[in-house]
Amino acid sequence: MQVELRGLTKRFGPVVANRAVDLVLKPGEVLGLLGENGAGKSTLMNMLCGLYTPDEGEILIDGQPVHFKGPGEAIAAGIGMVHQHFMLVPVFSVVENVVLGIEPTKRLDFLDLAKAREQVREIGRQYGLEVDPDALIESLPVGVQQRVEIIKVLFRSADVLILDEPTAVLTPQEVQEFFEIVRSLRDDGKAIVFITHKLNEILEIADRISVLRNGEIVGEGDPADLTKETLAEMMVGRPVSLSLGKTARAPGETILDVRNLVVLRDDDRMAVDNISLSIHSGEIVGLAGVQGNGQSALIEAITGLRQAASGTVTYLGEDITGVSVRKRHRMGIAHIPEDRLRSGLIADFTIAENMVLDTYYDDRFAQAGQVVWTRAERWAAKAASEFDIRTPSVFLKAGNLSGGNQQKLIVARELSRETKLVVAAQPTRGLDVGSIEYIHRRLLAARDEGDGILIMSSELDEILALSDRILVMFKGRIVAEFDAREAPPDKSAVGLSMAGMAA
Amino acid sequence: QVTDTGGIDDNSFNQTAWKGVQDAEAELGIEARFLESQAETDYEANINSLLGDCDLMVTVGFLLGDATQKAAQANPDQKFSIVDFSYDPAIPNVLGQVYATDEAAFLAGYLAAGMTETGILGTFGGINIPPVTIFMDGFHRGVTYHNAEKGTDVTVLGWDPDVGEGLFTNNFESLDDGRAFAQNLYDEGADIVLPVAGPVGLGSAALADELGTDQLKIIGVDADLFLTDPEKGHVYLTSITKRMDATVLEVIRRAQEGTFEGGVIVGQLENGGVDIAPFHDMDALVPQDLKDELAEIRQGIIDGTIPVDGS
Amino acid sequence: MTTSPDVSVMPQTAVATAWRRRSRIYGIVLIGLALLVAFIFGPDVDGDATFRLSRPKDPFALPNLVVPAAPFTYIAAALLAFLGAREFLRGGGRWSSIALGVGLAIAVVALLVWATAGKSFSLTGMLQATMVRAVPIALGGLAGVLCERVGVVNIAIEGMLLAGAFTGALVGSLLGGWMGLLTAVIIGGAFGFMLAALVVTYRMDQIIAGVVINLFVLGLTSYVSSQVFAEYRSLNDAPVFRAFKIPILSDIPVIGPMLFNQNIFVYGALILVAIATYYLFYTRNGLRARAVGEHPRAADTLGINVYRTRYIHVTLGGMVAGFGGAWFTLGSVGRFDENMTGGRGYIGLAAMIFGRWHPVGALLAALVFGFADSLQQKLALLQTPIPSEFLAMFPYIATIVVVAGLIGRARAPAADGKPYIKE
Amino acid sequence: MTLNENLDTATAKLLERAAPGRAEFEDLVVVPLFAVAVALALGALTMLATNVDLATIGRSYVALLQGSVGSLSALSETLTAAAPLVLAGLGLALGFRAGLFNIGAEGQILMGGMAAVITGFSLAGLPFPILLPLCLLAGALAGAAYASIAGILKAATGAHEVISTIMLNLISYRLVDYLLRLPFIQKEGRADPISKSVPPNAELPRLLDWLDPNLRVHGGVFLVIAAVIFAYWLLFRSKIGFEFRASGANPDAARYAGMKAGLIIVIAMATAGALAGLAGANQVLGVLGRTSPGFSAGIGFDAIAVALLGRSHPVGVLFAGLLFGALEAGGRQMQVDAGVSIDLIGIIQALIIVFIAAPILVRAIFPWGFRRGEQK
Ligand SMILES: Nc1ncnc2c1ncn2[C@@H]1O[C@H](COP(=O)(O)OP(=O)(O)OP(=O)(O)O)[C@@H](O)[C@H]1O
Ligand SMILES: Nc1ncnc2c1ncn2[C@@H]1O[C@H](COP(=O)(O)OP(=O)(O)OP(=O)(O)O)[C@@H](O)[C@H]1O
Ligand SMILES: [Mg+2]
Ligand SMILES: [Mg+2]
Questions:
Q1: What's the whole-number mean pLDDT along residues A93-117?
Q2: Which ligand is nearest to the CA of A402?
Q3: Do at least 3 CB pairs under 8 Å connect A with B?
Q4: pLDDT for C52-106, tens place per residue?
Q5: Which helix (H) or strand (E) holds A82?
Q6: Which of A365, C363, D16, D60 is the most exposed, having the fewest neighbouring CB atoms within 10 Å of its CB?
């Protein structure tokens, strides 16, 4: 089945998310869709899958124009989408999520999950997507949740699969497995749209590439005759250097020293199992690991968000195991949280307010129990322009910023303080090359100023690119350590130890 | 007339007092107007808003005591009369109307003791305050008197004059409580219940109506509920009536005749200010000799040979 | 599927610290209760506590349940002490909450025995009353569950109950009980629909919308009852649905009268709870409804109409509340009075949260409340030295204690209270 | 790091505020006017439905107007009725901003009032300038303490504040009933549950009684003004207020920023309680002069509507409170002149809130007079 988009346009108030986009999807082909944050990729696909209705233009399936009144109709027409932000109900089981919307039933509307379970297992076997049908989504690592999303689509026997940034949360191994799945789907004759930022991935998997910028198609071509550089340039609209030019640097005195740390989760299960590590001035330590292996727990313990069950955390020679988050901030520990919208900033506060979210009490902004907003605002404006946050005014709500700029806002807030230790969790998750490059440079700058830096990321490339030293976490323990000061270690070796196999 | 929060149609004291005013309207050809209080905060405002445009203002309910006093002192030439309250020292332009309800309650207690088959009676109140518990006291003592005279062993659930604690709904609004509390007493074997909680008693009546009067009878308070609550009238054995209509009418008459002066009118068995209502439908059920005894006791109370205060 | 390590590998020290935090506190509470029972109740109990299982005039009288008060009290105290000690020393994990629950139950029974010592009261009656008093709360809670499961917070339960009560009385007086009941349900539904329209279509803040409906209904019903009912009394004299026995079942001692000798509202409540549970957790539409409450966008991407689902369920919730409201008039006293629901709707709301957004949970919560309520009436009759005001507080305090002690952070549907904006 | 005072142009541009557009004007002025108009119209329909003749309806609305703003005494009544609504409403608004849905104002008012009256008559000896503040303080503290119960429970065990505050309300009624029976509180020589009176030197002085002894407006209005300013400062200027709003808008982010969630909950509840308690004290010291069962008269619940109507903004709350006060005072007049039950006011209040809280609805009814398109 062949799908064609003709002159699709979509506006959100003033914003034109897509302008007259033409696109063709062919069966048995993977179309790579590349574009910066806010380029309009998701919007475009949301129109294809019936979630949004186009303002202009039309969609043709096998030459016939169709008008979806809702996702239901798109699904019926054989179009399935795996959304950028998972569309899974956390408290439902895998099978419940899969059948939702097309549930098999017996008499009295009674759910017949038994049948569905079997189908789920079947699909799993067919495409190598094994998953326990009865597991609760919220108890599953993101990698597995990803599979469930794909099973959902296949369960609806879609011929067109739209994958919106599916690899953002996967480990190298998982990415490779995932590509296998995609290929087998393609060979199965399905038309696939693969949305991503990652240049090497798109070059590896796509049969054809379209680049979207500011809602318009700015380039198309065959992976064979495209390079990372050309793609990046199309995407951003200016030449970008992809190498950070990081220079080796001798580590200084110890900044953070963690001894025999044990951390539990809310449900008292083990998250961090007796870990010891240390971070020195002027070094970047990369914390690699598959989600769900305790990295966040470890970071929460270091930043004081989660109390340690046992063990000690020493910072600049001072035991801070029991010290409050606030105190740690003031002692110079910066924290770029894992999930910017959930815990990084407050969407309906202004940029200015967010900029001082954890320094408002500081003498620079506060006196006699009250915040002097004029000062805070000037400060915010300065930081905003300094960290080139794209916004007309600092009185705008942070929620209106694009993902990349939101992240920059957080980085600006954290790095423009007096810091000795920077803890960065997923600092560039879901950002475009431009922003990624910028944030990486900032982190390196901080390192060169003599800060100690701990980076937790599910993107191994990022870890490899930045780290002087790499620690791999698995099941709450540190299972491997790599020196990366001179040259980055072998990627697959790290990948293997992340999967728990001795490297 | 300014009512208390119960509302003019509460089948209870507000309504009875209003009846008095209406009687006056009929008999003495006066013109009447009323104002319902929603809440305590309204009392003063309501009184003020009636000030001036009437000769006599009747406020109903002890809760208005202070508001009335304030207004009376502020406006010495406005005549006031307040139901269920009296001032001491008396205020020259306020005539209080109070009632010795325990006298009538005593009779009701004796009657109930004579009528019960299970030997168990029940009572409950709105809130634990004298104006309410005076009924329960009188009732209880009436029963005790009956036990003493007749050597019976009738018990009263829900009030103990000596401890001063008992069964209270802690509100005067929730009819459903009235039903639940009566049910509770019925479960404990009571076959006659005296609810002293204004409209809440109507809930008890609904229960009696449902169970049938052979299972449960109700004794009303304030007004003769057989008349004011005709739908459920048949469940009332009798009512302990405060004839507020009588006293209010009397007050209005005095006001018209110009014999009005501050002080207090006490409603008693003697002057008919309090009484127990006729048995109406249940008249046949009440044995003649019990009726006679009641007549004697009434006399005894009036000439003070039978103390109702338990002494 | 979770990649997290299993409990066995964790060092004992760590586990212990985490688990003991909670169980220590519970332990102390339980031991406190034990001391209370032993030294406050203990000294002045004598004679037997007699719980009557049948009334004087009942056709066939059951033997009374006689408990020797003193021994019982001390046994209870011992049990509590044991539970407490166990919790304190090496309690923890799943059992802590259960232990605390059991402990509270024992304490309550001990209180009852202490109060009853040397006297007697009708246990059957108390249980029956428990059920009756629980009905409007349970129905209110159920209404809440239906709404919040699709992500609409319903503060308006109170108003819907009141509307049901009013309509029941008015129409019941004119056209008889059944018509009254029917219209009460319809009107309840109408207000549900109104709430849905306000919050779904007009994106009004859900709490504000709820508060508004409460204000509106209170105003309207009070207005009409003082403006109209005052004059035309016949409009406010509805027949009451009487209790009827379910053959055989109602003869089961104690439980029989409690469950099977009641009026249609009690049966209705029980049946509705059963249906709602089946519907929400075992049917297709139930699954979809919950999905809408947890993750509307996900539901939307799968072709489920979020708006329609919310409209339907909030309206259904309104109908349930309307039914519950009719209980006040058609199921109890046969006439309407201003604000006669007296905050039961809010307690229903509490029951829903306390019942963890589950129909059965809401029912049980309502029963706990009903029990505390009828218990305080009995205690008042038994003339305990406790002032009646404090007895009257008992149900409320009980609710707070249970909510604070046993429930803790209950988890609402994820999208609860959040408007869904399609584009 | 120090921030240099001379900002470059780029930075300066970022500091420009967008001037309030027409949307704001419509939301703040046009919509409320429409709302009131529509509400009154529907109110009239309700009266028609209950066969009230047109003449009476006309008279009742004239009365409503006169009774609320028509005369000096009307204004006085309006202010008197508004004062407690605004005070309690401010408290609730603070709670809402901090993400706490506190239904407990009613109980906090009762506690505040009791504390005020008890302090009043037990320290009657003290001179006015000391006693009055003392009574107000007692009221605020009592309210704060009572509200903190719910706060502490939530912070410590996660008990849902909606439940605990509802229950605390119900408990407070009984508590007052009981207290009023205690010999040292109950008015001597009185059988009914009524407290000793507030001594004159503890009363909030009436402001206009030199004009006419029946003008009830009292010193509470200054209390209200002060409270509004305080609440505004607290929310939008103070550090703790920033913490309130932050943990209200996104508790997680607040925690990550090092704010102490539990502490904030307790403080927010306490502040809310203090204001509600002040409302109670205001009633007792300014209007009632003593306490009796349920003297809060549902103010705590109306205050919820007021706070919501005022969009949890101190100034908004002030206006919402005045509106409700006016309706209440006018309603009483309405009942006297036209014999229309005051309950009608409840209906009108509800309708007004509907139309103000759902601007889209008003726009739907009156498409004209509004800028096309934009709907956020
Ligand atoms: N629901 C919406 N309302 C308003 N604006 C929107 C909405 N969705 C997207 N936009 C805007 O439309 C533009 C395109 O958004 P879109 O999510 O399609 O970009 P994208 O390429 O998917 O970005 P990303 O790589 O972060 O996923 C952005 O400017 C975004 O701010
Ligand atoms: N309190 C909890 N109850 C139940 N499951 C949990 C809990 N906390 C985490 N999990 C699940 O267990 C796994 C580990 O969670 P956790 O977030 O602690 O690991 P992590 O350190 O965050 O790993 P990552 O940082 O890569 O996400 C995840 O799948 C998470 O969903
Ligand atoms: Mg996207
Ligand atoms: Mg995590």
A1: 88
A2: 1
A3: no
A4: 776 655 556 667 777 777 788 888 888 888 888 887 776 666 677 778 778 888 8
A5: strand A79-82
A6: D16
Q: Shortest CB distance from C377 goes to which of B163, B175, B181?
A: B181
**pLDDT surpassing 70 at residue D242:** yes
Tell me, yes or no, whether chains C and D touch by having 3 or more C-beta pairs under 8 A: yes
Handedness of CA C103, C104, C106, C110 (dihedral sign): positive
Within a domain: residue A68? yes
* A348 and A224 within one domain: no
Which chains would you list as touching B if contact means 3+ CB atom pairs under 8 Å? C, D
Q: Are residues B170 and C389, on separate chains, in Cβ contact within 8 Å? A: yes
CA A111 to CA A109: how far, in whole Å?
6
Can you list the domains of chain C with their CATH numbers?
7-118 (no CATH), 124-406 (1.10.3470)
For residue C55, give how far its alpha carbon lies from the nearest alpha carbon of chain B (Å).
6
Domain that holds residue A388: 343-417
Q: What's the pLDDT at C56? A: 56
**Which residues in chain B have Cβ-Cβ distances shorter than 8 Å to C242?**
210
* pTM, entire model: 0.84
Based on C-alpha coordinates, what's the Rg of chain C?
24
- Residues A293 and A360 grouped into a single domain: no
- Taking the mean position of all CA atoms in its chain, how far away is CA A124? 25
At C58 the pLDDT is: 58
Please check whether residues A50 and A146 belong to one and the same domain: yes
Q: Does D375 touch chain A (CB under 8 A)?
A: no
- Six token digits for residue D16: 């420009």
Q: Check pLDDT > 80 for residue B5.
A: no
CATH of the domain at A134: 3.40.50.300
Cα–Cα distance for residue pair C194/C188, rounded to 1 Å = 10
Question: What ipTM was assigned to the predicted interfaces of this complex?
Answer: 0.81
Indicate whether A457 and A446 sit together in one domain.
yes
Work out how many domains chain A is built from and give that number.
3
Q: Which ligand is nearest to the CA of A265?
A: 2
Could you tell me if D268 and D246 are in contact, meaning their C-beta atoms sit under 8 angstroms apart? Answer: no
Neighbours of D369 (CB within 10 A): 11
Looking at A388, A417, A446, the residue that finishes a domain is A417
Q: How far apart are CA A21 and CA A8, in angstroms?
A: 5
Asked if residue A338 belongs to a domain, the reply is no
Residues A135 and A191 in one domain: yes
Query: Do you know the residue count of chain A?
Result: 503
Question: What distance in Å separates residue C286's CA from the closest CA in chain A?
Answer: 9
Test site for ligand 1: of A11, A19, A33, A43, most ligand atoms within 8 A of the Cβ: A43
Mean of all residue pLDDT scores within chain C:
83
pLDDT of res. B75: 82
Averaged pLDDT, B219-238: 84
Chain C residues within an 8 Å CB radius of B9: 226, 229-230
Query: Are residues A192 and A260 part of one domain?
Result: no
Domain-ending residue, one of A236, A254, A278 = A236
Q: Could you tell me the distance, in angstroms and rounded to a whole number, from the CA of residue A42 to the centre of ligand 1?
A: 7
